[in-house]
Design goal:
The chain has about 110 residues and is α+β, with helices and mostly antiparallel strands. It has three helices and five strands. It has helices spanning about 5-10, 55-70, 90, and strands at about 20, 25-30, 35-45, 80-85, 100-105. It has a five-stranded antiparallel beta sheet, covered by helices on one side. Strand 2 (about 25-30) and strand 3 form a beta hairpin. It is globular, with a radius of gyration of 14 Å. The relative contact order is 0.23. The structure holds guanosine-5'-monophosphate (5GP) and zinc ion. Zinc ion (ZN) binds next to helix 1.
Length: about 110
């Protein structure tokens, strides 16, 4: 997808160290962390919104969540973490390539 910053990161056109990678997803650190630990889990396939879900995309999202559950210790999130998917304008989504935020490494405030 042209002009999509996460597609460029996935393609390696914008360098970003990968803490995890497989054929369907990558995990990187957020460039502007909102917690002591702040990761982005990014499916390699471009789509913007959960409302664009189909069977194939649902499989990818399922895979991302299953993978997150195996990475907790490796990412330093064994104390717990918050999972956020911002959707659209009201949700504050700024990058229109679906991604899952993981925030942790400290006791997070209520929201
Ligand atoms: P959104 O607001 O769309 O849910 O989240 C987008 C996130 O991507 C923001 O937290 C922002 O800091 C992060 N971000 C934007 N550009 C880059 C980048 O080039 N590299 C990394 N690692 N994170 C980015
Ligand atoms: Zn994209």
């Amino acid at each position: 997808m042209e002009n999509c910053i996460f597609c460029k990161i996935v393609a390696g056109d914008i360098p970003s160290p990968r803490l995890y990678e497989d054929d369907k997803m990558i995990v990187i650190r957020d460039i502007e962390p909102k917690a002591k630990l702040h990761y982005l889990c990014i499916p390699k396939q471009h789509f913007a919104l959960l409302s664009e879900m189909d069977e194939g995309r649902a499989e990818i999202v399922k895979h991302v969540f299953q993978t997150i559950s195996t990475l907790e210790e490796q990412l330093g999130l064994q104390g717990g973490y918050r999972v956020i998917i911002n959707q659209g304008e009201d949700g504050g989504q700024t990058v229109h390539h679906l991604h899952i935020h993981l925030l942790g490494g400290e006791k997070l405030s209520d929201f």
